Amino acid sequence: MAELISDKEIVHTIVGYIELSEDIHNKIQQAYANLSESNKWRNENDIIYAASMPGQNNLSKGEIGSEVKDLEVVYTRYQTLLKQQIQETTVYIDELTNRLEKMNRIMNCYNNLPEDEHRILAIFYEDNKSFKAGLTEAMTRLNLERSAIVARRKKALIHIRKMYEKGLKSPQNEEILNKVAI
User: From residue 18, how far is each of 46, 82, 97, 104, 177 by CA, in Å?
Assistant: First the structure.
């Protein structure tokens, strides 16, 4: 089942796509750096742990047995913490990737709108104007009544939502998708 999107998500994406996508890319890069560091510490500590643990043959009864158990408990907690950090970072990266994918899909739908619908939304949102300023500019540039501008804007947002929900499988986009797949 296709994911639903709201007008607010569409507008938010059109208005801030470049900044939002750059922010997500930076967060993903930082998360990967943290993940890499966690894995590095995990591997180095495995070696340190193995080297620091006395062999079973070297232990006399009662000798350093409790210290070894204490060290094992602390080390196990540390390893658990590292594993948890890796799992949480992986989930975070997946969430960021899903958000970026959603934004990319919205922008693909926006960019595939018929020219008149794209123009209306561009006037309203690409320069991050207020609704009133966008409406005034659209009325002036397109020489249309307020009600016509509002209706076209609404139609364009509905068109984006429908294309998004269909996965860009509209007849006009089928040719584009086939070219990309080749």
Answer: 42, 34, 15, 10, 23
